[in-house]
């Protein structure tokens, strides 16, 4: 009896689409949920059978170019060390750092620069 119950439970779990079990940030969930209530993973990941990290062009299709995003988060030129640097226009990487180094959709986002620095970026959606 226990084996039958276990088998039934396993089949039920396997029938749930894995993508819909993935954690998704609220602000993206609204955009990526279809009329059927299911998340359309292809919106970011494309049609690849094995899901991959989205290309920067996918992020840019909604958020604008990396230059646009850098301009939105630009810091005053005379701010000095009292203001954290522009996270989208790094002194080390310019605008070349991929979005997914900080912005992680299915886990808590992190500040990539904090591997060496201690920036807070309190307005960052985590």
From TrEMBL:
It comes from the Bacteria. Residues 38-118 form the Tetrahaem cytochrome domain. Keywords: Electron transport, Heme, Iron, Metal-binding, Periplasm, Signal, Transport. Residues 1-21 form the signal peptide. This is Tetraheme cytochrome c. It comes from Shewanella pealeana (strain ATCC 700345 / ANG-SQ1). It is found in: Periplasm. Its cofactor is heme c. One of its GO terms (molecular function) is metal ion binding. One of its GO terms (cellular component) is periplasmic space. InterPro entries: Multihaem_cyt_sf, Tetrahaem_cytochrome. The keyword Ion transport does not apply. The keyword Ribonucleoprotein does not apply.
């Amino acid at each position: 009896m226990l084996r039958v119950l276990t088998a039934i439970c396993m089949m039920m779990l396997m029938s749930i689409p894995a993508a819909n079990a993935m954690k998704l940030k609220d602000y993206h969930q609204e955009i990526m949920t279809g009329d059927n209530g299911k998340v359309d993973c292809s919106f970011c990941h494309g049609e690849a059978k094995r899901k991959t990290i989205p290309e920067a062009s996918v992020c840019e299709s909604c958020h604008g170019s990396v230059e646009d995003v850098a301009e939105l988060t630009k810091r005053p030129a005379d701010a000095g060390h009292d203001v954290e640097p522009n996270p989208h226009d790094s002194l080390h990487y310019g605008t070349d750092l991929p979005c997914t180094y900080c912005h992680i959709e299915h886990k808590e986002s992190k500040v990539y620069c904090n591997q060496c620095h201690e920036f807070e970026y309190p307005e960052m959606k985590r």
